[in-house]
Amino acid sequence: LRRQAQTALMIILDKKFKLDVWNALAAAADVYRAVPVAQPVGAGTDISVTTRFLPAVEYGGAKLSEALKGLKDFFLDRFRHLCALAGHAPGAVEAVVAVSGKKFYPVDAMARVKALSDMKDREDLLALAVAFKRVRNILKGQPRAALDASLFCEDEEEALHEACGRLRKRVEVFSNEEKPLEALNAIAKIRPAVDRFFDKVL
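Given the sequence above, the corresponding structure tokens read:
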């Protein structure tokens, strides 16, 4: 299975197929959700078997949903292996794998891994990562709330808010165009506004 999964991923990457592997695995699993099983019937009937369909099946001692989860983990492990062979930074690989979520497009994932690997040592991006971690710690345990720009008191607050608005639009464009490196470059350029906010406001 290891060889088959890895070969499938290599073909997808080589041919640049826009394929959601999770959707493909789910479609394959659906075949097993209604499995015809031959059952003997009572005497006096003119047939020897009848067919019933199982709402769920056992696969290797586990329910199909559990087997499907195991397959996803297995494919991600093979993806990690291919990234390692390509020389990409393990941290970049894990960052991309961590947000694979409900969809997994290997071509897009590999492009994001490469972009992160290429930028992992950039000082401005590393500084932003530290700043975002600081923000996350500040907001930990706080309820989500809508942003009210009318409450801003400092120029740096307004400047960061406007910079984030412009950045969001640029990142959306680059994401739609499948340009993760350009998206990361755009994110890195917001560092001055973030630094001024922390220096003057917090």
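The chain has a mean pLDDT of 84. Try to locate this feature in the token string yourself.
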